TrEMBL record:
It comes from the Bacteria. SUPFAM superfamilies: Periplasmic binding protein-like II. It comes from Chamaesiphon polymorphus CCALA 037. PANTHER family: AMINO ACID ABC TRANSPORTER SUBSTRATE-BINDING PROTEIN, MEMBRANE-BOUND LYTIC MUREIN TRANSGLYCOSYLASE F. Residues 70-289 form the Ionotropic glutamate receptor C-terminal domain. InterPro entries: Iontro_rcpt_C, Solute-binding_3/MltF_N. This is ABC transporter substrate-binding protein. PROSITE patterns: PROKAR_LIPOPROTEIN.
Length: 298
């Protein structure tokens, strides 16, 4: 597996380089080592050279899952903290934990299928997987070919800083200095604000932007929540906190088109996880902050 992501990966829109190199390997095969987070979990070995199986019958996936006693879930293995390989070659991450919880809710075993980037939706369409839980965003094009659950995971651009920086909205940035990775999605969002009242310091990458905040060079930065999770984990004494969300783009479970029963079942499980505090627990575990409002943008 190509380990391009090491320190920081801005967000799903900036993962093109990962997908490029990963696709070179996928042209041969996607291999995974057998391992599990529970005794009821296993990992599948997928060879992309295999003949593509026929599509599942729309609306029958839930019945098929219950009859088989196993749900097959496509998950990331190259995008921490959503999903990555541990030193023991087992999958770990927010999406992996959510997949386990959904399998428990269905009362079936879990089969994890590593799926990188642009292979996620095809695995669902070609019946290689029953669900996709892989930091999947929702857009109009995808909605034409697959169905989605309600949002289950945070994925957003936000403003972060030290507790003494009193910022709760874009209006509070007036007179402030904020750091950002040049050319990033967050840079574009800041560019929409008045340059006369806000001082924006641009850095070459996320690592330098994070270093500027930690060293006190800037009191605030604009970055993705995945990057922020890494910063807060590596610098616990700094008490870095989220000030506000600039652009929200939560993650959804991908489901085969027409599987309304399965959508309803997955939604019910996610709702129960929100009400019980389980999703908040997982957010604290993997993103180092409470679960934010997952209401999608209008």
């Amino acid at each position: 597996m190509v380990q391009v992501f090491k320190e920081f990966l801005p967000n799903r829109w900036h993962r093109a380089i990962v997908l490029f190199f990963a696709s070179l390997l996928l042209s041969v095969s996607i291999a995974s080592c057998s391992g599990s987070s529970t005794s009821a979990t296993k990992m599948a070995i997928i060879n992309t050279a295999e003949v593509v199986p026929p599509k599942g019958i729309p609306g029958q996936t839930l019945n098929k899952i219950m009859a088989a006693g196993t749900v097959r879930v496509a998950v990331p293995d190259d995008f921490p903290p959503f999903g990555s390989m541990s030193p023991k070659m087992t999958l770990r991450g927010y999406d992996i934990d959510v997949a386990n919880e959904i399998a428990k809710g269905l009362k079936v075993n879990l089969e994890l299928i590593p799926a990188i980037g642009n292979y996620r939706v095809p695995f669902l369409q070609t019946n290689r997987a029953d669900l996709v839980i892989s930091s999947l965003g929702k857009n109009k094009d995808r909605a034409k070919i697959i169905d989605f659950s309600q949002p289950y995971a945070p994925f957003f651009s936000g403003v972060y800083g030290l507790p003494e920086s009193a910022v709760k909205s874009a209006e509070d940035l007036k007179g402030k200095t904020i750091g950002v990775a040049q050319g990033s999605l967050e840079d574009l969002e800041l560019s929409k604000l008045s340059s006369e009242t806000i001082t924006v310091k641009r850095f070459a990458n996320n690592s330098l932007t994070a270093a500027a905040l930690v060293s006190g060079q800037v009191p605030l930065i604009a970055t993705g929540n995945v990057v922020a999770a890494k910063i807060t984990k590596d610098n616990p004494a700094q008490n870095i906190e989220k000030k506000y969300i600039m652009k929200n783009s939560p993650c959804y479970v991908g489901i085969r088109k027409g599987d309304a029963q399965l959508v309803a079942k997955v939604d019910a499980i996610i709702t129960a996880m929100k009400q019980s505090g389980k999703l908040n627990e997982l957010s604290l575990k993997w993103f180092n902050e409470p679960l934010p409002d997952l209401t999608p943008p209008a």
